[in-house]
Amino acid sequence: MFRVKSISTKRCSSHLFLNPINKHINTNNNDNKNGIKGQSEDKMKASQRTKVERRNSEYDMEKEVRNIGARLMRIALKEVYGTQIDESAFANAVKEKMGQSKHGRGQISVPCFVLAKHCSSPPSLVADKLAESINSQLRSQSNVDHPIQKVDSCGGYINMHLSTEYLGGIIGKILNKEDGYLDQLPKTKARVMVEYSQPNTHKAFHVGHMRNVALGDCLVRLYEHIGNEVIAANYFGDEGSHVASCLWLLQKKMSEQDVTLEELVCESMTKGEWLGTTYAESKRWLDLATYTHLPFKGVVVAKVLSMSEMHPGVDASRNYRVITLDYGLARHATVVCTGDGFRVNDLVSYVPVGTHFQGKVVEPRHFKGLVSHGILLSARELGIDPS
């Protein structure tokens, strides 16, 4: 996976677009009028470029709407309640409380609970009266393209509905290449490292690997766009178990076939394909299933603690033996069976009580007065040829 981490940065200069005007300042006191005029035009053009870059690269539609809504709220407060709230109190009561609507009623929501204290009225009544005043302001400005189409009130909240024309206007900003809406944001002092991909040198890329590469590359571009200095790090996986397993298989083949490494290389494949094939083959060779055959789920290894020559019951068959087993974690079991060929301290295959085995649940069984817990398996039952 990828990791993102911040690293300490060196001191950075001021924003790039704060300097162009100064570059055009001429300190010669003997400039003629044409020179001064040309200088002024250059300064004006630079200033316009600066404003366009700042407006577009840092454009915040929600912030713009909040400011417009706050102005409407201030006018409504004065009109309805004759209240002139100082800037600090207004920011605390209105600006800081404004946010995106969470109930599907408009796009911007303003709670009136703090305002109610300044207006000496219940929040719901304050919201109703202010909403009516704001709608009146909007109707009086019907000849102006206003971003707020209407407002309504509900439960002590004022909900502002934005016009579709205003919301759709963002598309024009994005598509207009001259506006620079998608230009990179001003440089910051942050330096960020994005570490991603880490391809396996012995394995072909598939869609899962490409997903990680795409995500990492996207993060690099996004962090660069918002003004960070980005270091994209990619560590190739040229050491590890996959390399060791390939080397083991190549040495094994060279030893067994008495050939050189050059003779093992498949010329019909690229080096990457050949390494990938070798890696896959080494995984098969080193898989535990290659050296073991135990198809029965639930079979465990147990140690024989004791065994009797025959069943103690008088009417029991002489073939019955009573075996005491230890199958780990200090768990002991007594098994009655007819098997032989093992002695005390031998390791045997055992199926404990409660295990699903061959479609059935193993349960305790009674043998002539003794209870047998579980099953001992012979080599043939395990599918192993004893010869």
From TrEMBL:
<keyword id="KW-0694">RNA-binding</keyword>
<keyword id="KW-0547">Nucleotide-binding</keyword>
<keyword id="KW-0648">Protein biosynthesis</keyword>
<dbReference type="GO" id="GO:0005739">
    <property type="term" value="C:mitochondrion"/>
</dbReference>
<dbReference type="InterPro" id="IPR036695">
    <property type="entry name" value="Arg-tRNA-synth_N_sf"/>
</dbReference>
<dbReference type="GO" id="GO:0006420">
    <property type="term" value="P:arginyl-tRNA aminoacylation"/>
</dbReference>
<feature type="compositionally biased region" description="Low complexity">
    <location>
        <begin position="24"/>
        <end position="37"/>
    </location>
</feature>
<dbReference type="GO" id="GO:0032543">
    <property type="term" value="P:mitochondrial translation"/>
</dbReference>
<feature type="region of interest" description="Disordered">
    <location>
        <begin position="24"/>
        <end position="58"/>
    </location>
</feature>
<dbReference type="GO" id="GO:0005524">
    <property type="term" value="F:ATP binding"/>
</dbReference>
<feature type="domain" description="TRNA-binding">
    <location>
        <begin position="293"/>
        <end position="387"/>
    </location>
</feature>
<protein>
    <recommendedName>
        <fullName>tRNA-binding domain-containing protein</fullName>
    </recommendedName>
</protein>
<feature type="compositionally biased region" description="Basic and acidic residues">
    <location>
        <begin position="39"/>
        <end position="58"/>
    </location>
</feature>
<comment type="similarity">
    <text>Belongs to the class-I aminoacyl-tRNA synthetase family.</text>
</comment>
<dbReference type="InterPro" id="IPR014729">
    <property type="entry name" value="Rossmann-like_a/b/a_fold"/>
</dbReference>
<keyword id="KW-0067">ATP-binding</keyword>
<dbReference type="InterPro" id="IPR001278">
    <property type="entry name" value="Arg-tRNA-ligase"/>
</dbReference>
<keyword id="KW-0820">tRNA-binding</keyword>
<keyword id="KW-0030">Aminoacyl-tRNA synthetase</keyword>
<dbReference type="InterPro" id="IPR012340">
    <property type="entry name" value="NA-bd_OB-fold"/>
</dbReference>
<keyword id="KW-0436">Ligase</keyword>
<dbReference type="Pfam" id="PF00750">
    <property type="entry name" value="tRNA-synt_1d"/>
</dbReference>
<dbReference type="GO" id="GO:0000049">
    <property type="term" value="F:tRNA binding"/>
</dbReference>
<dbReference type="InterPro" id="IPR035684">
    <property type="entry name" value="ArgRS_core"/>
</dbReference>
<dbReference type="GO" id="GO:0004814">
    <property type="term" value="F:arginine-tRNA ligase activity"/>
</dbReference>
<dbReference type="InterPro" id="IPR002547">
    <property type="entry name" value="tRNA-bd_dom"/>
</dbReference>
